[in-house]
Batch of 3 targets.
Target 1
Amino acid sequence: MLLLQLLINGLQVGAIYALTAVGFSLVFGSTKIFHVAHGAAFTIAGYIFYMLTVKAGAHWLVGLAGSTVAVLAFGVLIDRLVYAPIERHEGSFFTVFVASLGVATIVQNLIGTMFGRGFVSVSTPLSKGVEVVQGVYVSPLVGISVVCGIGCFLALHLFLTRTHVGMALRALGENRDLVRAYGLNPRNLSTLALALGSLLVVPGAVIAAASSGLNPAIGAHVMLISIAATIVGGVGSLVGAACGGLLLGMAENLAHWGLASQWSEAITFVVLLLFIIFRPAGFFGSAIKT
Amino acid sequence: MPRLRNFIAQGLVLGGALLGAFSASAADVKIGAVFPLSGPNADYGDTFMLGTNLAVEHVNADKMLSGTLSIIYEDSAATPQRGVIAANKLVNVDQVPYFLSAFTGVSKAVAPISARTKVVAINGGGVGPDLATLGDYFWNVIPLADFELKAILPYLTKKKGAKKFVLIYVDDPLGEAMKKGLEQGLPALGAQLAAAHSIPPTAQQFASIAARVREVGPDLVYIASYGLQQSQIIKQLRDNGVTQQLAGYSGMGLPAVLQLPEAKGLLYTTQRVNFGSDDPVTKRFISDFKAKHKKEPSPYTVNYYNSVLLFAQLAAALEKGKQPVTGENLLKQRLATKEFQFAGGKVSFEQNGTVVSPIQINEVDGKGGSTVVE
């Protein structure tokens, strides 16, 4: 029964990790921006949901709408005000990385100043587990996490494969000059990638607010998992990032079966290390040829 | 242009001289503080500073010292590595004679710096029993975990009837000390530690720990962690079917835990502070704190208020005797003083530099407060 319980827990955590990893992978794959502030979008989404539903007492749908608007604005603004000027001045990959890290730090401190630096959570009956089989507790949030994960991923897949804008976004990661030659604006597409990538953190952030709770530094953990999942899944592959996120969530929870509890976090990096050594291209990434 | 350059150069020299003269004439007294001001334990830093800042206000308002007292805050992020950097800066660059420390791991890391440089370090937040053995220059104004366990274990086993314990402990010196304390203390009381789950300080997912706790079926779950992780553990245990009695040490006395609905009924220990005491120091502390923050002070706030007050009392005595305020003299003065008037009553120090204080057991009400049950 313990194994079944750990699998269910892994599924919930993995679904959240998968969504955040896909968002990061989308941004990195299409724009080549190492968007470390992706974790900050997660923090913003969670705290806006908390503020609207707990502090302001609004309906959860209002909270969800507020979070969505806030992260969309964050994605657009960071691209226009931070990444675009750096790109105009032909800043290096490292410059963009440092700028993104700076934004993440500022957001963390702003959130801490506004909401306090302690733990906050959204109380809901949906997070309370009920015993479905003897010794196995499942909360409605598990189902919601999985449905959200699959739904968001399918919607994104359809958008990227069936719409012209989606195809242009994919093309942006392949050949920026060619995109320009077709009369499209790479800058606008970058903004769209940032907005979409940020949008994908909303379900995970809202579920985290109700299940494990929030703190201003939560973005750093999210970012670490997103990077690991992207590498495990294969850089540039959204399916790979989703599988990578799911695998890491599963591994983190299944580590409790037979291993001491303190290994649960380390197992993420053991998986990452094994992939780097034995399959550097990840699940679905292609090997880089020189 | 040469005239302009000369003018600027002369201005800079004059400015520097004035600044130097001003610094030399000012008799400001500076002490340091190595607190967690960022990261997941920053909540503690905020709580500590409520006490230290109020103490500085009181000391300066009373003109206890010849100059103005101020505190240089440095961020440890609750990690030993950053704590050492912060302590080195305070001791070597700012040359403070006294600095405040917090957290068991950080305190153990900065204690050698304090001993080597003969600068007093005082802890009001860490409770690892080892903190009583860190040398003459490391003091504690908080009773340590062994005293807390000695107080709560008989209560939990006899009054609450708990015989089978599970421990969830953070993988650091504090957690290890708590584990050792439970392993040694429970058998004598006819109880047992059925399982102990160590967790990294950065862990945030505890649903699977809850599953393992349920498997053991304990009477009680003791949590030895700190910061926001405590709230995450409590919430996730309750959300995932762990209904047993929860208990913890003084680290639970944080607003985030006390306000958590899932924490209702949790038992935890703190030192006994008599807020109803008639002495003017306690009365002033309580009234000013409540007027300023519209809430009751936590034991941590009291401890760090007292830490600053202790420095002021010792430094004032040294100034009166025309002795310089150095770490060595502060130690001599402390050893020469039998009792100190603190917020919460009079206290004395044991030979090892740790205060003697009774312990009380509190029960969390889940609405931001707690009641004393023993």
Target 2
Amino acid sequence: MAEKAILFDTSKCSGCKGCQAACKSWNNLPSPTALNADAPSFTGTYQNPPDLNGMTRLIMTFAEEQGGPKGIKWAFGRRACQHCADAPCVTICPAGALFVDEATGLVTTDDAKCISCRYCASACPFDVPRYAGERGVINKCTGCVDRVANGMAPACVTTCQPGALSFGDRDEMVALAEERAAVLRERGFEDAVAYGVDEVGGLHVIQVLKYGTAAHGQVVDPAVNPAVALTQIMKPVTGAVTGLTVAGLAAMFALGVGYKRDKRVYNVETGDTLDVETHEVLKHGDGQDTESIKEHILENLPRRKGGDHE
Amino acid sequence: MSNEAYVPTAAKAQADEEYLRARAASGKERFIKRHSLQARITHGVTITCCLWLCVSGLFVFVPALAQLAGPDVVFALRMSHRVIGIAFIAVPLISAIMAPKGVKHVFKNLFAAWDSDDRKWMILFFPYLFMAKWIHMPDQHELKSGQRFADGMLWFSGALMAVTGVVLLVGSTVASFPAVYAVTLLLHDIGFFLICVFGLAHIFLGAGIFQPYRGSARLMFGDGMVSESDALYHWGHWAREELESGKNVVEK
């Protein structure tokens, strides 16, 4: 199966939020109304909930600003997993709970493996994964790989009435997006752009952003936190250096087998440190050492038979 | 042990002989008190916590281990990591509050200026580790120069783990700061790396696995005392000071 992608064309979106509802429905995610009921005052937005959360994998965002050929830009946005080709959440996940579906390239999840560490949330350049505390797992769009594997499109795509969402081979979606963005630019929407073609190694959610990237709430030039890659380097480095340390210590232990030293005592009256066995004065007083490094290393080394002289 | 062509006078030689005979006849050995009971308990609790944190942390750090153990076991280990992590931070802090003079003493030793013997000891340390049968080391003060460096690194990495651990705990429970969280995670990994290296070396030497350090475990896991002979070998300058003052010397 070729790499797949969801295409979202903002110029065709009517903001009905059917995709948001379909996502909830297919994934059995609740939609508590407490947020609306408890809101201190009307916020003036149709966007609800305000952001992704442990029960919401997809939200439609609504933004209004002046400008454009018709005097107002009413920009709908899709906020959900972008299914990066080089997904940092997959890279950092220590449990294998996040992985790339090989058949489609979509970034999906295995709840049974999630250990609730939330490292994925720290790595995502789009701030998407959310922790579902009551279920103890991370919550994000799975790309409906279960549906796709059975020949269907993701739930959000299937339900989209104005045809703003499409699903198909990624190359085809990219071509459609670029073509549509060009048409929009010709019609006076000069900021129209196809988003997701190259970002983070190429996304599997391609978007036609009629009023430009920022207007639709998308991240301009998304970048993966370099700490993610460095964290991955730390694992082999720590393993290798720890292994070397253990090997070094083992060698020291092996070379130390048979080590013994005579007891020593200190005669306070004379200031002499004495060897109890040989009665030799090991040191008089408490002054600083006067031998060179070389003397320290060589003076007690076993001599060759016949002495050192040639 | 260095001895710059010292030839004792006949009277001193006689005094040394009589001293050795008297010591042999007494059948007693002298010991120097080195670590208090509080220091030993603090060290014991901290090291137990540290070992548990390393093991439980490994199940998050190493994906293969996490997948082998399964999510429920890893989740339980992660929760224990948090609880034991709090003990790892709290116990030394409480101990420090109970004995501020001890803390001052520890840090005074850690940052003491290095003299000629200290520098020489450090240069000789790595050859010594592999040639301990032949290389004798210069006398040292209460903390060997290498000990100051290694203990300092353990203090540093312990503090780094504590601070980053608290940030990770807060960032995954009551607050959300993903970018800082990712960097903190990296710093936590660096702290773990340092603890692996310096902790292993510390165990190898401190527990007396390394043959010349046999008996060292008694200092933290026994009665906190070091024999006169071992003290003179490891910390010659300090041992002579203590034996001359007699304040912390016990004969038994």
Target 3
Amino acid sequence: MTINVLTSEPLPPAGTGGLSGRTLVIAALIVAAAAALPLVLSSYQVGLATEVLIFGVLAMSIDILAGFAGRTSLGHGAIFGISTYVVVYCSTQLGLHPAVAFALGVVAATLAAAIFGLLAVRASGVYFLLLTLALGMIVWGVCLRWSQVTGGENGMRAEARPAILANQNTFYWSVLIGTVIVSFAMWRLVRSPFGLTLRGIRDSESRMRSLGYNVPLHLFIGFTVSGFFAGVAGAFYAMFNNFVSPSTVALANSVEGVLMAIVGGVGTLFGSFIGAAAIVTLQNVVSGYTERWQMILGLAFVVVMIFAPEGIIGKLRAMVPRKTR
Amino acid sequence: MLDPILTLTDVVVSFAALRAVDGVSLSVPRGQRRAIIGPNGAGKTTLFNAIAGAVPPTSGRIVFNGHVVTGLPPHRRSRLGISRTFQITNLFPTLSVQDNMILALRGSSSSRLFSLFGSPDMEANEARRIATALRATRIADRADVIVKEMSYGEQRQLEIAIALVTTPHLLLLDEPAAGLSPSERSMIADVIRSLDRDITVIIIEHDMDLTLGLVDHVTCLFEGRVLVEEPPEGIRRNAKVQEVYLGMPRHA
């Protein structure tokens, strides 16, 4: 992913709207490499790779808002988790077809994001952070207390995954295909005329208003679309985990998504996968050695913030032109 | 007199007890270059805000190009052809000059605003209008530069380019040369002087030499009222103008 981001930046000049040839080749190579991973990894590691893809999509959906609209959401973990809950509930309690459950999960997440968006888009900065945090906490509270439906603290177990995807590798490949599709969609989104208006809002809301833009409406649409992508990640997570509990919608999940986006590099979009890979790996490797893995993770964040506040990809991008100059 | 493009009748803007603009009537003929001068606190920027719509007048009437615009919000006025620059530079610093121009252009023509997954390319007529505005402000070769990497003077030029790209009938320039070096000032003066004569220009500026060399007619405001209205040659010799600027207290 690293190489892909580095070469697709700076954006090709106007007139080459689609993918440029070289970017396409590199993107294809990265996807091919990712597709080949199950051939060399153990089944446990394939599980981790699947998790990286799922959380990478969640972090990307957060980056659409944080990196391009200047609004950091602490509610996306909850939006992600709503989708997970709905998929698990629909497939176990209602016995719906996995594809239908998946679709309903994404729809529920998108609706939740629309409600979050309505309430939050007029705020900015720390107020936006706090509002989205509070909305996420409400979702968590509901999932915890409404135990007839959600199973309360115990959560719900499910066989959400369709039978043909039962195999670890097959499931990984299907998640990879889904990831490629939504990543491409998000990449198009941030480069589209609409994406440009989001970047304009990030840079100067007052100027956007005086130019005649309806700033809250743009943010609302941006938030809802971002929630759709978080919902896709959440629905995949339901099938990956076959289990959901309030910890899926908890604040910690939102924070983790934001941290992944930050570690990868806010505003780099594909950096989210680097961030997700770094954090998922660290969590799983370090926790094998010490019970205090969260402390190590905390230290790692401190180090990143000190030496690469622009994130890993941001740092690499800043270094590359210096070398070629 | 030529047909006026902008007519203000008894415009008052008051903030609580302060009447920042206190019954101003003026009429600007189509294509004129008009300066609004006056000492600090005379109400120049407030009058601008009343014309552009940022601060609606408390009373009075503003007619622009045959439309009564007194109570219209800024973006509606901008669609009618009123365009302004800001005293404090307000651009999109992390975007390229080109992207700044695209945003400025599309704000007034909403056709592709909600193209969520559309191509980032410009349409041919957009590219043409942007190129024209950048040429008029002498920054055509800077289109791909990120705004925060430009000099302050260039940013002021971009500020004018953004106001021009929507092809306005009336351009309001709020201290376009404030904070610039002498050479940057003469660049701005050049840009303003070579603007299309179809565009009516109203300019607020403290630099008298710069302003009086640019305009056809001058309105001097003092304490929210029109003090003098004269061509530039008269203004230089006008005793009242000298008095408010130099602050000679004759009857103190």
